[in-house]
Amino acid sequence: MSRTRIVKGKITEIVEKNYNIYSESSIIDNAADIISDKGVERGESFGNPDNPPSTQIKAKCLVEFRPHGNWKGEFGFDWIRTGDSGLVGDKNWVKDILGKHYTNSHLNVVTTDTNSWTNFFKKWPSMFNNLINSFKKLQINWKSTKGNPFFYHVPVIAIVHNENIAKLSLKIEIQTAPKKLEIKPQKEKTGLIFNKTELPINNGKYNLYNFLTVKASKPLKEDVYVDVLADNEICGQFKVLANDTAHIKKINVIIVPIKTKLGAVPKIGKMVSDGDSFFRQNLIQSLIKPNIRYLIKPLDVSTNNTFKNRYSRSGVIFSDDGSQDGSFIPILDYLDAELNRVYPGRYTNFYKLYFLLDAYPDPIDSNLVTQGFADKLFTDHVIFFYDHDRSTISHETLHAMGLPHTFDGKKSNYTYKAQKTDNIMDYCHWSTDLNGNPRTPVEGKILFGWQWQIVNNTIKIK
User: Which InterPro entries match (predicted)?
Assistant: First the structure.
């Protein structure tokens, strides 16, 4: 909503107490002569801006948004999860699974193993508070209890114009029925297209499953808030992120099949079926568009015994650090050097994804295998082995782009109880828990908003 006021004379405002002005964008003063600010007692001061007070929802209606019932991460959506969406990765109130894993039952030493976890977990209320404060919030007085304010945390949608569509389910609560419930962006001519602009009105609580679609018909230069209005009073809201070229991050990726001969027969690695399309789908949640190229001719490391002697034993990968032959050249560094030898400088600014058809079993427990790995966070190379699946590709490449595991209490601001989400960076795909007990595996397919901000720093959730 915009307002222009033209006054040909003077404007005088007299305020007995404080006078506060808040803006979510810029405050600009223009004068043909002089702009004068005076502080009689303490002069002028400058500093970081405060957040404005929470907007109030006055209408006795509430409309909340969730992803549709079969959401697989085909668009970005983040909200404060309360376990009420019916989705396989949303079975818990996030407050109950935010915290850290500890090395013992005394819960006094956080585990430092970034690739595993323990049975000892403690919730961190401060972490939950930080998470909810990272979202814009609206205050709902009519739902407050015993003087405690009730806040509505505004969910965030990430879509790319003319590429994907957000489909949402709605959770509605009406205490006093309005004459009209409508969906309306706060700005005009945004190019956002909704399949519905009015909502059906019933009394009490009800759901509208798979009800609303949101499409961007043109790029958004800035974030757009979309309101649900009950007789022109806000009773719900979501935010659609800016998605023009300044906010879409593009990365270069090269898919490199590796030809090896660890046994009697040569093998050529390849990406699992549907791996590249699932990879694109995972990244689009963060407004990232990969430029994927495919090396047609495999990178051949089978012509001499260097690779075989350095990294394999008995026809499988045995070690990746180069310790077997005393070179101590890690396998990824070796492959980088070979790729650069064949194609000098061509793929310097690419994420390099190497694919082997050879297995990498655990040397102690042959039932365990390594599907792939990135050697560290913020790197540009990743390797995948025979048993990788499509989620492995996104998981390991996102490590390379800077994302730790969701249960990693050492490197992440927000950490979750392991295997309780369907996040790409969780080990939710395991068919057993830490103690070997069977569990239903869940494919990792979504990213949280705070993760979007790590891999694409143009995104602002609040």
Answer: MetalloPept_cat_dom_sf
